[in-house]
Specification:
Helices cover about 15% and strands about 20% of the residues. By secondary structure, it is an alpha+beta fold.
Length: about 120
């Protein structure tokens, strides 16, 4: 089982292949935002990698990050936990002013993953 460390929240074991956004929310119990429901449309699930950043990226993630001009961050909704990783959850419900984190993303990457 991969180990996920969320800075300031500790380390948890997560099932291999689980979406990072779900692992952060469900396993690490961090209030990460996912306003669009994990569909690579809003960038509220962004994280910074400290270590273990995956080398691959979905086309949807690459396109959205370029469109928004974001660098140094990744979209947790587009990443699968396939190895140990340490992240900073930079986009959290706490302090956001939003009423909730958003609709919980499905188990599978959406839109269907096409790897860049």
């Amino acid at each position: 089982m991969p180990k996920l460390t969320v800075e300031g929240f500790g380390t948890v074991d997560v099932p291999a292949g689980k979406r990072l956004v779900l692992a952060i929310a469900q396993d690490a119990k961090v209030d990460i935002l996912h306003a669009c429901g994990g569909n690579a449309r809003c960038t509220t699930c962004r994280v910074e990698f400290v270590s273990g950043e995956p080398a691959t990226m979905t086309v949807a993630e690459k396109t959205k990050l370029e469109e928004k001009g974001l660098t140094g961050v990744r979209l947790a909704c587009q990443i699968l936990c396939d190895g140990d990783m340490t992240v900073r959850a930079t986009s959290r419900l706490e302090g956001s002013g939003r009423p909730d984190a958003g609709r919980l993303p499905d188990d599978a990457i959406a839109p269907p993953a096409v790897w860049a």
